[in-house]
Design goal:
The complex is a heterodimer of chains A (227) and B (190). In chain A, helix 3 runs antiparallel to helix 4 and helix 5 (123-143) packs parallel to helix 7. The model of chain A is unreliable at 223-227 (pLDDT under 50). Chain A has 227 residues and is an all-alpha fold. Chain A is built from eight helices and no strands. Chain B is mostly helical and 190 residues long. In chain B, helix 2 packs across helix 3 and helix 7 crosses helix 9 (167-189). Chain B is elongated. The chains are: A mainly alpha (227), B mainly alpha (190). Chains A and B meet through helix 1 and helix 8 of A and helix 3, helix 4 and helix 5 of B.
């Protein structure tokens, strides 16, 4: 009996019923509901505190929020699809959320270049972004915890990218400051940093399954323990 | 019965059905599926890799990866894009590993040759004479480049200027020379 035959028999002998990962659409709907709930909670709290949503006064806010939520929804779908080998294989699908976020950052940066006043302190905006992004990121992580990603870095970046976009939309809703430089420094740059940090999450959390798949127990004939 | 042929010749629905039954814990269906997958992936890898042993390793690694990822397969979707995404990822991983090993081997060859031919103040290297002989047997350009780099201790940009070559060309020719000397050394030792 050759190696392959032995391996096939061992793997087949080890088979047990598995619980399939839920469909991409189902996981996406669950995530959208959670993200919407966190934004709605934030909006309700803000409206109660300030007697209305401070940020919703301008057309710029509406534009930013729509752009950010579109990027978040698309990034989340692609991130959830990447949990399954062979899904979201089109580069256009993976790049579109990044382009949408990039467009938002470019619009804000362009406006800031023309009007460099009124940066102010925006620690509260950064905290709001992180607080709103955290549950969204955690939800995406949990929904993807059984992922078998063949593009783990993309998965990680899209996970934090979607969460960062939701966080930035939340911060935009609550923030009364409309100065372009403030939006660039305290809204756009933290969101971008958060999105990029996802590469690490992808590397450390979503690439491990692939290495473990070929690391059998030390008593297995294909074990590499001794190497 | 030839299981490989039985599965190999069947339709997409048969593969989907086998995978669905495997997810439900049907060992016979799973064994049948794995045999078919092994044949397909081994042929696929052999078309892409010059080394048959490496292709067989990739095929076996793909089986283990398929086993680890089997819960992600959705029986309502086609089987082959799912399978080949895993196989391609394995091939890519194999190529990365090979590249890393090749880089280590080249730097090891370079260190060995540098140690053997460099002008030594005290005791000569035990392989010095052999390496010098093998160096003399190399094609003129490789020999000249290695002598300039390792005996006369010129830098890569200096050698490139002297011989009217690009720096990357100098590195490639030198590495081929190191590899050739290593190959002949190992041949001589066997």
């Amino acid at each position: 009996m050759n190696d392959a035959e032995q391996l096939i028999r061992e793997i087949a002998g080890d088979v047990r019923p598995v619980r399939r990962i839920p469909s991409v659409t189902l996981r996406w709907v669950v995530w959208l509901a959670l993200a919407a709930a966190s934004l709605a909670t934030l909006a309700a709290l803000e409206a109660r505190r300030a007697g209305g949503l401070a940020g919703l006064a301008t057309a710029g806010t509406v534009r930013d929020v729509v752009l950010l939520l579109a990027a978040a929804a698309l990034a989340a779908w692609t991130c959830l699809a990447l949990a399954v080998p062979g899904r979201a294989s089109s580069p256009a699908l993976r790049w579109t959320p990044a382009v949408l976020l990039g467009v938002w950052i470019a619009v804000v940066a362009f406006a800031a270049a023309g009007d460099a006043n009124g940066c102010g302190s925006g620690i509260a905006c950064v905290l709001t972004t992180l607080l709103v992004a955290a549950p969204s990121a955690a939800a995406l992580y949990v929904l993807n915890r059984r992922a078998a990603a063949t593009r783990p870095l993309w998965l990680g970046a899209l996970l934090t990218g979607a969460a960062a976009a939701v966080g930035a939309a939340g911060a935009r809703l609550c923030c009364a400051g409309d100065a372009p430089l403030h939006l660039l420094v305290w809204h756009a740059l933290p969101a971008m940093g958060l999105a990029v940090s996802g590469l690490l999450i992808g590397h450390y959390a979503f690439a491990r399954w692939f290495r473990r798949a070929v690391a059998p127990a030390c008593n297995h004939p294909r074990s590499r323990c001794a190497e | 019965m030839d299981h490989d042929t039985a599965v190999h010749d069947s339709s997409e629905e048969t593969w989907n059905d086998l995978m669905r039954r495997a997810q439900e814990g049907d060992a016979a269906a799973y064994e049948n599926l794995l045999r078919g997958v092994h044949t397909l992936v081994r042929d696929y890898a052999r078309r892409r890799l010059p080394d048959v042993t490496a292709a067989d390793d990739v095929a076996q690694d793909t089986l283990m990866t398929l086993h680890a990822a089997r819960h992600t397969y959705d029986p309502r979707r086609p089987f082959f894009p799912w399978l080949y995404a895993i196989a391609n990822h394995r091939l890519l991983d194999h190529a990365r590993k090979r590249q890393r090993i090749r880089l280590r081997e080249v730097s090891g060859d370079e260190a060995l040759i540098a140690g053997a031919v460099a002008p030594a103040a005290d005791a000569p290297h035990p392989l010095a004479e052999t390496v010098r002989q093998l160096l003399a047997e190399l094609p003129e350009r490789s020999r000249r480049i290695i002598e300039l780099l390792k005996i006369e201790e010129y830098s890569v940009p200096e050698v490139a200027r002297l011989l009217h070559l690009s720096e990357s060309n100098v590195k490639v020719i030198a590495h081929r020379g190191y590899r050739e000397i290593r190959r002949r050394l190992e041949g001589g030792q066997r």
